[in-house]
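Moderator note: this is an archived Q&A kept for reference. The question asked for a predicted structure of one protein chain; the sequence and the answer are reproduced below.
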Amino acid sequence: MDEPRLNHVQCLNTRGLHRMAYWEWGDPTHPRVLVCVHGLTRQGRDFDTLARAMCQHYRVVCPDVAGRGESDWLPDPMGYVVPAYVADMVTLLARLNAQTVDWVGTSMGGLIGMGLSSLPNSPVRRLVLNDVGPRIEFGALERIGRYVGEPVTWGSFDEAADAMRLICAGFGPHTPEQWDALNRAHLKQNAQGRWVTRYDPSIAVPFKAVTPEMAAAGEAQMWQAWDRITAQTLLVRGAQSDLVTAQTAAEMSRRGPKATTVAFDGVGHAPTLIAPEQLEVVGRFLLN
């Protein structure tokens, strides 16, 4: 199967309902379900390579989190927060009729996975965290805050793609074809014919409101959640990541679910799980 199926599920927000899109690969009746959730400004097609590799073993589901990709934008920007995303994923799992799931979460998608995995009676069996953990370096948040939500448009796809490659340099080395696939799914033309990213700029509102004090309080809560997780857990990270340090990874391996940790050289934030060595690490963990 070369292309996924696009479906939608209705979810509740503070002012009504919104449709969350999800891309589905493989046999829709397969009892094993793998959910792959993207980072802050991205969308579910980031996982195309991983999904193609895993859809013989799973029903693979890659949602576009609210405000991204093909999903509706929220009427209240303050709804763009992890607890609300966790609630949306619970709704999605009910639609899928999934009793247990394996989870791959990149950055924000990993925070959503941690939140879901820490709940009593969580359905998450195996958890892959891609360059995220309970402690997020505030300097990395500041770096991301400098570009997220900025009202930038481009006159051509190539101009937009060049800008994306600069912003996403932390993804590490990719072939031109791989960059093209990542960018084609992430960019679109607006009504004026200008190229823009496929996310609501308002996702930046709660993100940019985070202070160092709020980040510290959130970290304490996330470590408490981490210690409640019982799923088998793998942490993959870029060896040059500014978001998850080697020290944080070591602590994640010592407490809570005692994650297995793997770092990829030449990569920052965050691995795209496209390179063969990255696919091999994740696939071996999920299927063994």
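Archived answer notes: The chain has one domain: 5-287.
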